[in-house]
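Quick one from the shared queue. A colleague (R.T.) flagged 2-succinylbenzoate--CoA ligase as missing a structural entry in our internal table.

Convert sequence to structure tokens.
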Amino acid sequence: MTSMPHWLSKQSFLQPERHAVEFMDGSFLTFRDLETRSKRMAGALAHEGIKEKDHVAVLSVNHPSFIEVVFGLSYLGARAVLLNIRLTPEELSYQVKDAEVETFIYGPEQAEKVAGLGNENLTFLSFRDLEGEYQTPELKETIELDEVFTLMYTSGTTGNPKAVLHTYGNHWFSAVSSALNLGFDREDKWLLNLPLFHVSGFSTLMKSVVYGMTIEFHDHFDAKAVVESIRQRGITMVSGVSVMLGKLVKALEGKELPSSFRCFLLGGGPATETLLKQANEAGIPVFQTYGMTETTSQIVTLSPQDAVRKLGSAGKALATASVHIDADEGETGEIMVEGPMVSEGYYNRERPTTRFFATGDMGRFDEEGFLYVVGRKKEMIISGGENVYPAEIENVLVQVDGVQEAAVVGVDDEKWGEVPAAFVTGEGIDRQHVKNACLRLLARFKHPAYIYHITELPRNASNKVMKHLLIERMKEGKYDEIE
């Protein structure tokens, strides 16, 4: 077991007056402030009976108290179970029970939802209940890298969600690997507007205390606010998904960003060539990534100079990680990953015994070793004996004029067994343009047999597309095909 000084305490000692967290209203917390407030929070949590290795649920939007609670728990050696605010009371109840939570901490905006949980075995505490001064207990001033720090639930698109165990070591090596890939500058400032309960948002918070880097704290994504932060307050790094990148490009209104802005870390799937070119013209360096909750955020990243040349690729594995394809060379197979940022497994589930973690995603390497993710293993379509991966078709569809988003599923077919059916959102979509793109970029057996235009894709609380609902609604005749 490897130990090191508590990250927040160390930054408070090394650079007490440096800004740890800045807010849009101009206020800020130094590393000394954040340490003091987090230790005071640890006293409040201990007063409520929370102790080492307890599982404590946290349900809140991005809020300063969220940060203090998380670090307060770390000073006690307790574990934070981070819950998605978009979940229903029934879904939350399942996760709270599954994670064996005893104390439930929530932001004031979640009071109505919390009232619907009705679990008499839980102690409920709002952020307001934790205000005031309390005696400071004995705190953990060292971090054991093998100890579990957080539990985050998977989206549950293929079954019940599972709690991913993240150790301090997972978070540490995720931050270090990111720095080795993206580089690090003492003047870097990362804008945090992704939810803290998601691994992408939480990993930014961890980077702050590992690097001693300032983060600017936003409670949600607003493209105009992001542009202002980059231009007026020196933001150099932003994380987001393609939809956010598109809104950021639009908000710039043809004007470039300053050269000090050096990274838009893009997750959630590849961007279109059109969007990447627009971002490049606007001075937005886009680093496309592949990662998941189980890999504590990114594990593969594509640099901006390769973004168009390797369109659709997630890039290459980070310095401390390895990626393997479970197939013959050049063939498509399941993506297997290894590295110190990869979770040891799930809470109350059997731990993996193999060297590599099986992601459930299918992918392939090109001749230069760049990874291409082609879809989920369980979503693979077998049409006339040929394997068809939905993501490969989706990546083509989103390049068609007018298409904003696309999802592809397999539907039963008497002749071929299964055929692809496509669902697209957007305006002014021409079926012939879709067919032309498929003819140019896809083998015939991959062409969608059906193309439906819908208002929006159905998503779950983790923003993942619920493809089974697309099939159900299609069968019920709720969608119209594009003529």
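The chain has a mean pLDDT of 92.
Residues 7 and 406 are 42 Å apart (CA to CA).
Added to the table.
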